Amino acid sequence: MLNQQAFSADRIDEADQLRVNVYRLLARLLRQPPDAPLLAILKQMTGDDSELGQAITDLSQAAAVTSLAASRDEYNTLFIGLGRGILTPFGSYYLTGFLHEKPLARLRDDMVPLGIARSDDVRDPEDHVAALMEMMAGLIDGTFGTVQPLSAQKAFFDRHVVSWTPHFFKDLEDCPSAGFFKPVGRIGRLFMAIEQGAFEM
């Protein structure tokens, strides 16, 4: 979804790599319908005894009992629809009720100095939840040219992510039409809370 520069030579620690992994998992799950390789990977995942770990285990179990066709149909029902899906995964919509509003303009302004640009072949606005998950991962691991300090990560998170994504993930978790994607919503909701708490320490 995003134009990515060469990875930074800076190395990140294990905790930050785990953060990157969760952000990229959420980005992939929400960017487009699952494919067979993704479902195969999800089936092999295991979580620990934490709430987030249990949600990951639930996702793995859902992948084990969900067909490729069913997971794709669910994705389309939730996010695409016949004009619009049940959920509208864009920041401007969650914050203003409309697409392409001021939150998107503010995001675009903040992307430029961080070296983040949308790919030419992407039609969705940059405030799609999957794009924001990719952006956070890139700020942490240097995908966009350099590893950003925690202060920059926090500023971006506070301004563009935590302002609405917890509500989106809760809506996804609670959506009656969500089956396979219900644990995705739970993972997102729990992880956003973990990130917010860590940034406030």
TrEMBL record:
Keywords: Chaperone. This is Molecular chaperone TorD family protein. The keyword Transmembrane does not apply. InterPro entries: DMSO/NO3_reduct_chaperone, TorD-like_sf, TorD/DmsD_chaperones. Transmembrane segments: none annotated. The keyword Chaperone applies. It comes from Hoeflea ulvae. It comes from the Bacteria. SUPFAM superfamilies: TorD-like (SSF89155).
